[in-house]
Write a structure and sequence with these properties.
The protein is an alpha+beta fold. The chain is 23% helix and 34% strand. It has a single domain, classed as Glucose Permease (Domain IIA) (Distorted Sandwich). The structure holds zinc ion. Zinc ion binds next to loops.
Length: 216
Amino acid sequence: MMINCLRLKQNRLILLAVLVLFICVGVGGFRQEQIQALNAPEKLLPQPQEIASTAWQHASFPVEEFQSYTSPFGYRLSPVTGEKQFHNGLDLAAPLGSYVRNWWTGKVVKVSDDTACGTSVIVESGGWRHAYCHLEGHVEKAANGRYMIDRSGGIQIWQGQDIPVGMRIGRVGMTGRTTGPHLHWTLKFNGNYVDPALVLKEMFKKQAMLMPDKLS
Ligand SMILES: [Zn+2]
């Protein structure tokens, strides 16, 4: 009797989870190609059958002490020139010196400090490329390679280094072309820019799925 009762509860839970999945997929507002573009880096996934339910919840939000989204991805009027321009990332405001975290396990493919992006780190994770701009610190060269150094933040990131998800890879700064402290975060999938807000929505949705009670 007790076991039957438990089973019934378990079945109800599974039914609820499937229902939640169905509702989320149904009203998510994503076009099919967007969902495909948002497939998590394949080689980093635990099990293929877990892709739909758990992949995105392993990703890390890219900044600590987050305050607000100050500029969305897409076309906008430049705050500097007043002309229409393409904003290829998402701006996340945070106090100067807030730590930036690696969104997904990968390899640092570039560190730089001589463009409008300022001191920056670019990480590759499967088909994904994620870039972090306007960081504190600068780039230095050594006999065995290049690295980004932020001494007061205790950060040193080598070009070519493997880094885990959630690792602190820099701090929010004002380097490059920027009017205030924020992280300019860009994402590319197979060479094409993707709106980071869509990725964050997927991440939050997957986390919510694991906690069906919190959805209502
Ligand atoms: Zn930006």
